[in-house]
Structures are given as structure tokens and as C-alpha cells.
Design brief:
By secondary structure, the protein is an alpha+beta fold. It has 4 helices and 3 strands. Strands 1-2-3 form a 3-stranded antiparallel sheet, with helices on one face. Helix 3 packs antiparallel against helix 4. The N and C termini lie far apart (45 Å). The model has no long low-confidence stretch (mean pLDDT 94).
């Protein structure tokens, strides 16, 4: 285990994963990393303006997937499906080395993971699941 990859900030975030579910979500999406088996399920409800008003998560992931889920959940409320899709796409591009640092609070914690491409799918799980769930919720609303 690399000390710089699994640094104190990431390990602290990994302990902050919200462990709450929504009783009747508008939509839900589960994403899984085929490399390590990490899984993240995100449930969402949207308000009348189409923004995330409630989020539920079930996270069964490695430390990086847990940290990413916690980071995502900390700033997801109030965002539109388009904003979540843009965040997902920006994170994917940045991890692939084809885009700038995404505009998501605290995402720079994953700078040490840039050179560990096998870890990228776990970092993307919560963002991918939330963007999909929010889009589904918009269609259901």
C-alpha cells in the first residue's frame, strides 16, 4: 500500500461515508468496479425544481471508493442531473489525464491516485451512480 495513495485525508474521508437509505427513492443506481469488486448504490429524490433534495447510499467499497462516496455526498444536495453528469464527466476526464481538476470541493485529495489507473473505477463509482439515478429520477418525475 502506497502511503501517498492511502493518505490521512483519504482514510479520514473513508470513515465519513453516509450510511443512510431513502425509504421510497425516485430512482436508484448501482455501479460496480470490475477490478476490485467495489459497489456503490446511490438513491435520489429530486425537488420541484429538479434538484437533488435527498440522497441515500449503500457503499461496499475499498478506501478510495468510500472516500469518493463521502466526498460526493458532502456536496450533492441541491445539484441538478446536468450538474451531476458534468461532475461525473469531469472526474472521468481528469483521471484519464484529458481534463483539468474537476470543480468539486475536495476532489484534489485524489491527486495521488492519478498514476494508479486500476483505482480510477472505484473513485468514479458514486459520481457515476448518482448521475444515472438523477437522470432516471428526472424521467420519473
Amino acid at each position: 500500500m502506497s502511503a501517498s495513495l492511502y493518505n490521512e485525508r483519504i482514510l479520514r474521508l473513508a470513515t465519513e461515508v453516509p450510511d443512510r437509505r431513502i425509504e421510497t427513492p425516485m430512482a436508484s443506481s448501482e455501479k460496480r468496479s470490475p477490478i476490485c469488486g467495489s459497489r456503490v448504490t446511490v438513491e435520489v429524490n429530486l425537488d420541484a425544481e429538479g434538484r437533488v433534495s435527498e440522497i441515500g447510499m449503500l457503499v461496499r467499497a475499498c478506501a478510495l471508493g468510500q472516500a469518493s462516496s463521502a466526498l460526493f455526498a458532502a456536496d450533492a444536495l441541491g445539484r441538478s442531473p446536468e450538474e451531476l453528469a458534468a461532475a461525473r464527466d469531469a472526474l472521468t476526464a481528469w483521471l484519464a489525464g484529458t481534463g483539468p481538476l474537476p470543480d468539486w470541493p475536495g476532489i484534489d485529495v485524489f491527486v495521488p491516485a492519478l498514476t494508479h489507473s486500476a483505482r480510477h473505477p472505484s473513485i468514479r463509482l458514486a459520481f457515476e451512480a448518482a448521475a444515472e439515478a438523477a437522470e432516471q429520477a428526472r424521467g420519473a418525475g
